[in-house]
Amino acid sequence: MGFTEIFVATHDAALKRAGLLDEGGSAPAGQAVRIAGISDFEVEQLGDLAGTAVHAGGADYELTMVDVSSDSLLAVPPAMVRALADLLSYETEGEGNILDDVAGQWAAQDDMPFDAVRARTYVQQLAELANSVDDSERTGLYVWSA
């Protein structure tokens, strides 16, 4: 299995980045997290877990095709962006840390190629990316999966 890259961009910039990645090139640095060994399916699983954790379960966390020119580029729905961003500030009762809980649950999914410690880093990075999405700048969260 290849890798999946999750990044913040405008629609046009996302299409350009996907084009580079589709051709096997290296995408420019920027607001992105690259995770080896997962696909868009695992990103959707994370969205479901995050939504449930922030009491927003049942929303549509299915990634959607962005453009017919790229089968590998998907958009993260607004509900998932909010749920991921909320992991940074969601208040829980008791001692638990919601971000740690979600990371542990995600790492425990079938065939995940990393442990809970590494998942914690990824979930923190993805939550920060989601938090940086700015409607006024017309940016969104995108997933490119090889």
Task: Walk me through the structure.
With 146 residues, the chain is of the alpha+beta class. It has one domain (3-145). 42% of the residues lie in helices and 21% in strands. The chain has helices at 11-22, 40-53, 78-86, 98-107, 116-132; strands at 3-10, 32-36, 64-67, 70-75, 139-145. It has a five-stranded antiparallel β-sheet, sandwiched between helices. Strand 3 (64-67) and strand 4 (70-75) form a beta hairpin. The model has no long low-confidence stretch (mean pLDDT 91).
Number of strands: 5
Proportion of beta-strand residues: 15-25%
Order of helices and strands: EHEHEEHHHE
Question: What level of helicity do the residues show?
Answer: 40-55%
Uncertain runs are none
Mean pLDDT: 91
**Rg on CA atoms, Å:** 15 Å
Cα distance, first to last residue?
A: 8 Å
**Major β-sheet annotation:** 5 strands, antiparallel
